[in-house]
Amino acid sequence: MNILFLIGGLILILLGANGLTDGSASIAKRLRIPPIVIGLTIVAFGTSAPELTVSVASALKGSADIAIGNVVGSNIFNTLMIVGCTSLFAPIVITRNTLRKEIPLCILSSVALLVCANDVFLDKASENILNRVDGLLLLCFFAIFMGYTFAIARTPSTPPTGDSQQFAHPTEEDEIKLLPWWKSSLYILGGLAALIYGGQLFVNGATGIARNLGVSESIIGLTLVAGGTSLPELATSIVAALKKNPEIAIGNVIGSNLLNIFFVLGCSASITPLHLNEITNFDLFTLVGSGILLWFFGLFFARRTITRIEGSIMVLCYVAYTVVLIYNA
């Protein structure tokens, strides 16, 4: 039964990702909204819904390691595995604005979590806890992020000087199908529903298999649950890149990472304090390092483009991280 959940969930995730990308890209084109804004909001909210559901439910059930591990593991998976795999299908072009503002903001969110989760080191406390104050602080950061995103939406979508050659190709604009309003809305709602339900099926199947094998909650949260809840981001980013919408692909990853830390963990910690038992600084520093690696690859080498070689390096980094986790389990 668990294997059927895995397969069924994966099919729903792939179908949902395709519908969500088509619907959101069509609305972005019709309203002349920058695609990066769509990626940071509609797509990111939809693909982060599984993380929100799993983390809040885990927090209420007292499984803090799954709640926190889900977010930390998902963000590492998003940055290294999703960006890496997506660039293998089609190189990802990053705008100057994303490189200078959104990615650094993503790194800042990881640093904020690292600071909030180090009570033992910073305050000489008996244990590391994400308490309600930390949760409310993260939600305040989330409000600032949303304000910034809406500010982007009010600015003209014309690319800055120097980016025009990369983003002003008519052929890329033609790749976006202009759908009727009702069909775009149906694609988005149906895609979100398929992503959420498919993610839940996948997580239930993966968790059931893992627990039957006697794997700890922290490993489940950091790997299987994180990978399962990040499948919507993976599918959406790959589909967006193949459809010549690189800004939706990268915006989806960055937006999901920010939402996972600021909103998902903020809500979870505000509901009930989260005790960090087996989630260590190794995991948190890996999270910070993955964001820095993305920024580094985007800033140097191939002129704001994540190439297949860089994507391969990111995938290998994630594989190495997973091997270390399993080895130390």
TrEMBL record:
Keyword hit for Transmembrane: yes
Subcellular locations according to the entry: Membrane
Tagged with keyword Transmembrane helix: yes
GO molecular function annotations of the record: calcium channel activity; calcium, potassium:sodium antiporter activity
Spans traversing the lipid bilayer: 76-94, 103-121, 133-153, 186-207, 249-272, 284-302, 309-327
UniProt topology in membrane: Multi-pass membrane protein
Domain Sodium/calcium exchanger membrane region, residue spans: 3-149, 185-326
GO BP of this protein: intracellular calcium ion homeostasis
Annotated keywords: Membrane, Transmembrane, Transmembrane helix
Gene Ontology CC: one annotated term: plasma membrane
Family annotation (Pfam families): Na_Ca_ex
InterPro entries named in the record: K/Na/Ca-exchanger (IPR004481), NaCa_Exmemb (IPR004837), NCX_ion-bd_dom_sf (IPR044880)
Protein name: Calcium/sodium antiporter
Organism (species): Bacteroides acidifaciens
Gene: yrbG
